[in-house]
Write a structure and sequence with these properties.
The complex is a heterodimer of chains A (about 250) and B (about 325). Chain A contains ten helices and ten strands. Chain A has about 250 residues and is an alpha/beta fold. Chain A has one domain: Rossmann fold, CATH 3.40.50. In chain A, the strands form two sheets. Chain A has a six-stranded mixed sheet with strand order 6-7-8-3-9-10, sandwiched between helices. In chain A, strands 2-1-4-5 form a four-stranded antiparallel sheet, covered by helices on one side. The two termini of chain A are about 30 Å apart. Chain B has helices at about 5-20, 30-55, 65-80, 85-110, 115-135, 160-185, 185-195, 200-205, 210-235, 240, 245-260, 265-285, 290-305, 310-315, 320-335, and strands at about 145, 235. In chain B, strands 1-2 form a two-stranded antiparallel ribbon. The two termini of chain B are about 10 Å apart. The relative contact order of chain B is 0.17. Classes of the chains: A alpha/beta (about 250), B mainly alpha (about 325). The interface of A and B includes residues 73, 93, 114 and 154 of A. Bound molecules: adenosine-5'-diphosphate and magnesium ion.
């Protein structure tokens, strides 16, 4: 598999605070890559650099071979790299369908096609029952799936999910995991930030671990949970034991 | 088909047809009622032009009297200085207004929310002062029309108001039709998306600055056409008459009163405010100048506090957000 996204030596400073330190990793085309790390590790910051919301202080970000570091976010989106927001941002005075429609117009300027695409994304993300609902008046689970549906509607090559399952009930988590599997089945590449292990471990092809802004590990999920550096920095011993038991059973 | 869908699909063309028929049945002639009708149509068109950027785009501008004024001066300049028909001035004025809007808005759009609104206030003052001392366009005295031959060529009617009525109706039809087309287009959705969340819109590939500037240019162009009509109707123009905060307020208040960000809001606002203003002016004049503005200001404050959805919100029994959403969902059903 070739890399669709190449992050190389990315650093991001906020004044004196170094939120990302020389982070490098690749995301392979068609893969689901998980970006994990404790709160404040710099995951969202890295995401915002990739999505064009921040211009990294140093380093390069190549998407499909093209440098995108520092491009404005709408241009990044136009290149086929879509994102969701950790803190959901529904377009409140628009219906669920209209929210998705705005995304769909990116690849489909004409009304008819945009509407068809929006209807598809509505179903992919289990939102058909909420079609004409005001987007601001839904449960968090629905809003999080709306984030994904809207990004998906832009017909991206790759999608960035920022904590898509954080704060959801177990039913909602299952729905979201199903949605993410569907994305992959549709040939999309997924880079997802998460700190809920249960959601990410079974579906991720690769995990990148951040701690205090630095990459401390990268590899297959089963190796990551055994990596001593990861365990001490982030997971805690209990989790490793639980995973061992789970794997043995 | 339920009534809502029917109205959303045919309501607008039916209303236009009915309004166009009024002079045929003798309802529009020389009297005062014609003046009120013309003023309603003009005011509705002004408020709708403002609504494009102020309502749909969420960029509350108090600068629209500048664009209105440029349009008015365009027509008056062509007639009084250029000694031609108003038409070339109308076109040039509207284009200049659009260009001015882009130049002025670009830095202002870097400001968020109230700061944007405040910056547009300043713009009105600046333009007002410049036109006051600019002798080429008449300075503080302004431009006065000489007597012209009646008809469409000069866009002038001295006794019978029917011509002005049809002109106002054409303007009204133009502005409202443009709004309707935009409302149901990609650009319209982008505009609302930018209002609801600029960063979110950008994450979906929307160039928010481009969208806002385009909407502002279009809004200013249409406002300038209204201004040109105003000059032709009043036979004169001077800075305080067009480029003033009073005039800017009219754009904003009518839209807010009727229901900001909605298609029918500006018409409803004008339908309520203008008769009130025109028929009460004589009584209010006795109390001193500015009393009408005080009363309208109070109405607006009460409206904002108790029913931010405007008159449309009252009619549909919903607050601003729901009213806008419902109106649009009904429209969408009708567009299918
Ligand atoms: N816009 C910002 N300005 C200043 N500091 C920030 C900003 N965004 C994030 N930070 C800081 O950068 C660090 C990483 O934050 P973040 O990327 O949100 O972490 P994560 O998503 O992994 O929880 C934190 O210390 C946070 O306080
Ligand atoms: Mg985060």
């Amino acid at each position: 598999m070739s890399a669709i996204l190449q992050v190389e030596g990315v650093s991001m400073k906020f004044g004196a605070l170094l939120a990302n330190k020389d982070v490098s990793f690749d995301v392979e085309e068609g893969a689901i890559v998980g970006l994990i790390g404790p709160n404040g590790a710099g995951k969202t910051t890295l995401f915002n650099c990739v999505a064009g919301f921040y211009k990294p202080s140093a380093g390069s970000i190549r998407f499909r071979g093209e440098e995108i570091a520092g491009l404005p976010s709408y241009k990044v989106a136009r290149k086929g790299l879509a994102r969701t927001f950790q803190v959901v941002r529904p377009l409140k005075e628009m219906s669920v369908f209209e929210n998705i429609l705005v995304g769909a117009y990116l690849g489909h300027p004409d009304n008819k096609h945009a509407r068809e695409v929006a209807e598809e994304c509505l179903e992919t993300c289990f939102l058909q029952d909420w079609r004409d609902w005001p987007a601001g008046d839904m449960t968090i689970g629905n809003k999080k799936r709306l984030e994904v549906a809207r990004a998906l509607a832009t017909s991206p090559r790759m999608i960035l999910l920022d904590e898509a399952v954080a704060g959801l009930t177990s039913t909602e988590v299952r729905e979201m995991v199903e949605v993410i599997k569907r994305l992959k089945a549709n040939g999309l590449t997924v880079l997802m930030v998460e700190h809920i292990m249960e959601a990410i471990m079974p579906i991720a092809d690769k995990i990148v671990v951040l701690a205090s802004g630095e990459k401390i590990a990268e590899g297959a999920p089963k190796d990551i949970v055994r990596d001593p550096k990861v365990i001490t920095a982030y997971l805690g011993k209990k989790y490793a034991e639980a995973m061992d038991k789970g794997a043995g059973a | 088909m339920d009534i809502r869908k029917f109205l959303s699909k045919y309501g607008w063309p039916l209303l236009l047809a009915a309004l166009a028929a009024l002079p045929l049945v003798g309802l529009v002639g020389p009297g005062f009622s014609s003046h009120v009708l013309i003023t309603i149509l003009l005011t509705a068109a002004m408020a709708q032009a403002w609504n494009l950027i102020g309502g749909y785009g969420g960029q509350v501008s108090f600068g629209h009297s500048v664009f209105f004024g440029i349009g008015a001066y365009g027509a008056a300049f062509a007639v009084c200085v250029g000694k031609t028909t108003p038409w070339p001035g109308v076109i040039v004025g509207a284009l200049l207004a659009a260009v001015t809007a882009v130049i002025v808005s670009y830095p202002c759009f870097k400001l968020k929310g109230h700061y944007f609104a405040i910056a547009t206030f300043a713009v009105v003052e600046i333009f007002n002062r410049v036109f006051m001392i600019w002798d080429w366009v008449g300075g503080a005295v302004g431009l006065d029309y000489t007597i012209l031959e009646d008809g469409w060529r000069n866009f002038t009617w001295s006794v019978d108001k029917r011509g002005y009525y049809l002109g106002a109706l054409a303007l009204f039809a133009l502005v409202f039709t443009v709004t309707r087309v935009i409302e149901r287009s990609r650009f319209g959705y982008y505009l609302r998306a930018v209002r609801e969340g600029q960063e979110t819109a950008e994450s979906l590939g929307v160039n928010s600055t481009g969208v806002k500037l385009t909407a502002m240019a279009l809004s200013a162009f249409l406002a300038a056409l209204c201004g040109a009509f105003f000059a032709q109707y009043n036979f004169r123009v001077d800075p305080p008459m067009v480029m003033s905060l009073d005039m800017s307020m009219k754009f904003v208040l009518v839209a807010i009163l009727g229901g900001i960000g909605t298609f029918w809001g500006p018409l409803l606002g004008a339908l309520v405010l203008i008769p009130l203003q025109e028929y009460s002016r004589a009584y209010l004049a006795k109390l001193g100048s500015g009393v009408d503005l005080i009363i309208f200001g109070l109405i607006i404050i009460l409206m904002m506090v108790y029913q931010p959805g405007g008159i449309l919100g009252i009619l549909t029994g919903t607050k601003a957000r729901k009213a806008r959403l419902r109106a649009r969902l009904a429209a969408e059903g009708g567009a299918k």
